[in-house]
Amino acid sequence: MTPSEALVRDHTVYSCVMGSRAFGLATDDSDTDLRGVFLAPTSLYWGFEKPPAHVEGPAAEQFSWELERFCALALRTNPNVLECLHSPLVEHIDDTGRELLALRDAFLSRQAHQTFVRYADGQRKKLEADVRQYGAPRWKHAMHLLRLLVSCRDLLRTGRLVIDVGTDREPLLAVKRGEVPWPEVERRMTRLTAEADTAALRSPLPPEPDHARIEDFLIRTRRASALQPAMDGN
């Protein structure tokens, strides 16, 4: 095991299952995607070589962020990172992880409109390129893009991020199986984007994330980590 993987093993504060299993879209052949947050000991930042901002592994399909990097991405309303805080499938959590989850609403804001829709637009362009080159899109990616747009629209409408697709499961799986013609999928994408645009105009979300609350949490957590060796020695 590498030193980076040992950080994940020994210092993870929160981990969850993401991907199709968290979205309610799992089938028999679905992978189990693990995502997590680890807290690198503060003392590791005192030397020239800093701890990693993220780590792949040690398990297959596992990816973890160091707490500061995770918070920075979430404050920028990164869709993949924000969704980790709302997974219904929590694998591990400690006191720091529970405080992080208690702050998850502080990361949400109307800025999600731009980041989610911009990300979706980039993914749609890739699908359109596949259609031009191969005659069909990657249907699994098309399904997940529709799911993301629904999630974005509903977040802007309600102020709550819910990642389980619920009753949309079968219609989305039909897209994955290639049973929905591409022009119809495109129409759905266009409609959902327009609905997200409308929802953003009167969303209950605040204009920006609560940077101060998140930074206070990060500073307190770093300070507690710095004091940990002295506390252990008492």
Task: Give your account of this protein's structure.
With 234 residues, the protein is of the alpha+beta class. The chain folds into two domains: 3-108 and 210-233, 2-Layer Sandwich (Beta Polymerase, domain 2); 111-201. It has helices spanning 3-11, 20-23, 67-75, 79-84, 95-102, 111-134, 139-158, 169-176, 182-201, 211-233, and strands spanning 12-18, 33-38, 54-56, 62-66, 90-93. It has a five-stranded mixed β-sheet with strand order 3-4-2-1-5. Helix 6 (111-134) packs antiparallel against helix 7, helix 7 (139-158) packs antiparallel against helix 8 (169-176) and helix 7 (139-158) packs parallel to helix 9.
Features:
alpha+beta; Beta Polymerase, domain 2; 11% strand; globular; disordered C terminus
Give the neighbour order of strands across the main sheet. Answer: 3-4-2-1-5
As residue ranges, the low-confidence spans are: 230-234
CATH topology of the largest domain: Beta Polymerase, domain 2
Largest sheet: 5 strands, mixed
Instruction: Evaluate the radius of gyration.
Output: 19 Å
How does the overall form come out from the CA principal axes? globular
Mean pLDDT over all positions: 95
CATH class of the largest domain: Alpha Beta
Distance between the termini: 31 Å
Number of helices: 10
N-to-C SSE series? HEHEEEHHEHHHHHH
Work out the helicity level.
55-70%
Q: Would you count the extended β strands for me?
A: 5
Briefly note the structural class of the backbone. alpha+beta
Which range does the strand content fall in? 5-15%
Whole-number total of structural domains? 2
CATH architecture name of the largest domain: 2-Layer Sandwich
